[in-house]
Design goal:
Elements: H1 24-46, H2 65-74
Amino acid sequence: MSTNDMLLCCQRIAKNEEIKENTPEYRQFLAALEYVLIKLAKMIARDGEGATKFIEIFVYGAKNRRRSHTSGASRCEF
């Protein structure tokens, strides 16, 4: 990872009212933050030195996360 591949998330700068946990606003904020972080992570991966392809594998119906990872990894060559 290069020094340019970094994301910094700061809080308390805008002095907005605190978002309380387990509220609709909290869930909305988390969903938006997750969307942005995933988007940025994919952009960094696509822009990687020597990267020529970007592949996403979705596994549905696995009994757990470990099995879904194993199944997805077995379908492609790294």
